[in-house]
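Supplementary Note 3. Input sequence used for the single-chain structure prediction.
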Amino acid sequence: MAFAIKAEISDPLAETFAFTAQKTMYGGKLIAAGDEIFLFASENEGGRGLVARGVVTSVEALAKKPGTIRQTPRISLSIRRTGLARQPLGRSELKRLTDWDDGQPGTELNFKFYRQATNKIVGLSGEAAAFLDRLF
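The predicted structure, written as discrete structure tokens, is reproduced below.
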């Protein structure tokens, strides 16, 4: 399974990335060392969407806070970059894809990243991963 993260990425050309206490949704909590991950620089922090891909080098699940009933699982992870995106893919390119049941990989990405605009780690279908692979 492949994954994607949308987060603040100040230097998309960095060889390695470290993210702390990231929210996981849509299967994102299943991520493990060795998994492929696509990195999206969050537009909420001035990014432009898809910037790189990499391999997860470490993952640490964070303990839930006692006394809080509903909590989104959070993890910290490290990534080694393996490629840079050749073309942009972000909110502006995906916003027209809103037929949530059409089965298209771009629609899956729009739904998982932009229906709720928070930064997060998500699991991807094989079709969405193949779609993103073509951008490298």
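The beta strands are 2-7, 16-25, 36-41, 49-61, 74-84, 120-124. The mean pLDDT is 94.
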